[in-house]
Model the fold of this input.
Amino acid sequence: MFSLTLNGTRRHIRDTSPNTTLLDWLRERGHVGTKEGCAEGDCGACTVAIREDGQWKAINSCLVPLPAMADREVLSVEGLSEPGKPLHPAQQAMVETLGSQCGYCTPGFVMSIFEAGHRSDLKGPENAWKLDDQLCGNLCRCTGYRPIRKALEQVAGTHPDDGFQGESLPIKALSYQAGDERFFRPSTLEALWPILDQHPNATLVCGATDLGLDITQKGVRYPTLVSLEALPIGGLERTDTGWRIGATLSLADLESAAPLPILTRMLRYFASRQIKHRATLGGNLCTASPIGDSAPVLMALGASVVLASKAGERSVLLDDFFLDYRKIDLQPGEILAFIDVPHPKPNTLRAAYKVSKRREMDISAVSAAFVVELSAGIVSAARLAYGGMAATTKRACETEAMLIGKPWNDENLELAIAKLDFTPMSDHRGSAWYRTQVAGNLLRGFYAETRDTPVPELEEGHIGTVQVSGTVEAQP
Done:
């Protein structure tokens, strides 16, 4: 048995499959304001809020295995106000701005606006883009976003006196079983190793934003799930040589900390806020998707992963971690514990890019990250990493070799682009020809964008993955 707090009431759960999602559990118990739209984290109709680290965070309930919410405080739209009492400010704002029409998406929007009301970083013109980011994971098909955006602006950062202030509940160790299915959540590494020994075929999980898709879209039922979420591997530490990033640190927290501009730039369009509240850097690497957005950045920076087991730790350069399509160098009994990212050297140009059909909430057709070190105008080192161009994230080694030792100029850049050593596949996101052209154009854009700014950041109102002031001559 385990417990969670739903809308202020403690609920005890037993005999429920660990593969049950939070969304299904809510709806089965009459909390039908939380909707199922896509069941894959794209539409936001299932948005609820959880209290974590003293803050309310919007998440997709359709992707969360129910036991992952043990010891947590969950708030659904029904919990915002009681019948016959005034609406919550997030609900009232949607009424006043006429932000609801058919109403199907409305509860999800309300919960995202609820989170915005309790945020402290939404005021000021420099943070205007965060309002778009707050709602990019919520889809409305009939009202249009202008009135909903007005509702958001009315509530964002106001910290309403709505009775939902307070501290988070501590996340404890959990061992839960229903039928033949098990869910473990150890809180120490010492407790983890015996579990992995006893259950060598267990599936490791943390945020479940990828695993949740297997449950909702493929009907997978995992016999044994081992959550790493409560382990002490979620911090962020600056060292003399670089940054050590905990594998279970959420992408939202990593983005907020902004340790590396090149990584923050990619995280901005990594996914919706609901996804980033649950997704982790370690999880994104271990899924080994060839279009995973963090891998090109970390590979370009020369990052290594620290793999831990009861025998100790070993460090593997990220270049060597990806073995093949969806295959990684993770041995039985090991977990990815940390990512070590060295500090970039002085005089380096650094930027990351993502090309997709939509600006927000889309999978990359091609992603890339480039780190080029210059010495008196000569390329002394280069790491050019691409996603979407092969079965794994890979560096363009021949292109790098063509650049090193030569002046950083248009002519040498074109010679190097001609050596891009990839044979990408064609699929519904782009043909092989398209991907090849994009890969070269991103490197050209990087050259143009870093002429004046070695480490560019995204502008507030940008509309393209490459931002260049003035006119740049088109390449043939």
Notes: Residues 470-476 have pLDDT under 50 and may be disordered. The chain has three domains: 2-78+167-227, 81-155, 236-449. The longest helix spans residues 432-449.
